[in-house]
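Mods, move this if it's the wrong board.
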Amino acid sequence: MAKKTVFLTGSSGTMGWAGFKELYAKKDQYDIVVLNRGSQKNKDKFKPYENDPSVKLVWGDLTNYEDVLKCVTGSDYVLHVGGMVSPAADYYPVKTQKTNVTAAQNIVNAVKAQPNKDDIKVVYIGTVAETGDRNAPIHWGRTGDPLKVSVYDHYAISKIKAEAVFAESGLKHWVSLRQSGILYPAILKNLEPIMYHVPINGMLEWATVEDSGRLLANICGDDIPEEFWRRFYNIGSGEEYRITNYEFEDLLLGTLGLGSPKKLFDPHWFTTRNFHGQWYYDGDELEKYCHFRANIPVKEYFKSMMDKVEGYYKLAFLAKPFAPILKKLWMKKIAETPEYGTLWWAENKVDVRMKAYYGSMEEYEKLPRSWDDFEIVIPSKKTTADDVKVLDHGYDETKPFDSLTLEDLQKAAEFRGGKCLATEIVDMYTPVKWVSARGNEFEMSPNLVLKGGHWCPAELPWPWKYDEEARINPFFAQVWDREGEDNVYGPEIFDNFKEKVTE
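Not the wrong board. Structure tokens:
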């Protein structure tokens, strides 16, 4: 059987490297093309493979079309994992959008330039950040839910735009996989101010790095049916990995031997909203096709990560008796980090941050300072539980998708506060005309609207006007029940960033 050629972007990153190793383990089946920037770090990482005939190393840039074209030419699969990510994305929002969207456009154009474009299969890795915070009772998410990027999150905006590039490309074989938080050993060392941007009662269905790598390799198998393509999926490692952020901290600190979160943190150090996360109601759909989950119990997995980190982290248990000192001198100091720490925002009364992450300074002041007064919420993790709340998508989902009518599209548009202006439908993948509640006309495929959750591209943040949007868009209002607020977050919120937002 002839070998397949797989072009993998982002191979030096966490998920991409895991995917590379999985593909390389099957090099009798695959030739691998990787495109990386020519940094010394990347060259050192791939030096063991530079003379391997099954690996083609290309030093270049995803924003350079000729580099991308060189890699796409002759490839059977394109696995697009690469791009600008946090923390760089947090500091350089404009550059992030330009980089990530341009890379997507270059890949699509390069595939279209091939004589066998209909045969090339393109996999795009999106992000759970596209749908923003989904705290209880709306913590069960699925593809097709409203897109709701957290304030300040230009990375997520870039991923939404890039996703639309693929979905509206006209390519016969594309798929968008929205990645969740990735569990990998180095996460044990991740002690940055962003750890407090996460609501302690928030929820996330994590994906292990091994599952993520296996997913990339398995998609290239011969057993993936035609029906898999031109769809959106959520990546998660399943029920075991549906954990609240409190449970995550408990597992993390327990693995390091540092005890309960209650010993190292105060509850008000954590935000109450504006950070992405959900449990996947439809997460098993991707597993059905790709069979990538190892199904390791989550506690066992955390213990296994400990075996893969530096030795001094394994000695962390020696610090357990000094937890009160660590709390004051280390953990609290992280929350006090200038510009990005939650306690720094509060102390300096950074109004825009407090509104985005707490609702207001007044709401922050009401938060309990003691765990004795704080309610830890851990809902059931089973999709069959009584507290499962699945959002309404505004059309009859019992119908086969390809049999939806113009009337179905009109109802879906009305539920979004707008109208479908089409007089006929070619299919679910050909763009039709819509108009939003704000009167903006646009063209978009029914697939991207109904199955992807997208809407008017001109109304993507920024500025963030979610309070207003919820009043005119019932579909969006399902994820934004904040009566009495009327906030707008414009370019002025980026005044302290390394890169000014001026466009």
